[in-house]
Please model this.
Amino acid sequence: MRKKPRRARRSFTPEFKAEIGALCRRRDRSVGQGAKDFGLAETRVRDWVRQAEIDEGDRAGLTSSERAELTALRRENRRLREDVEVLKRATAFFAKETR
Model:
């Protein structure tokens, strides 16, 4: 059995995601039809529609801006933890040197 070659990972702008989500929410297209028309996975389009509902306040969850802020804060937190670890090692090193 031969495997299909993998497609290169594509990235989409927030505007594109919002546009596809809006098309499906207005019922101009079903999720399946929207995915087929744009060559996307149906689950990906469904996720975009769900996120559009959250952003518009129709569904509970983290909005896109809240999710972006959370990601940035986690990244900063990880960097600060690494900085603290380096400072702990440097302190231990210099404390040993001064004895």
Notes: Residues 64-99 form one domain.
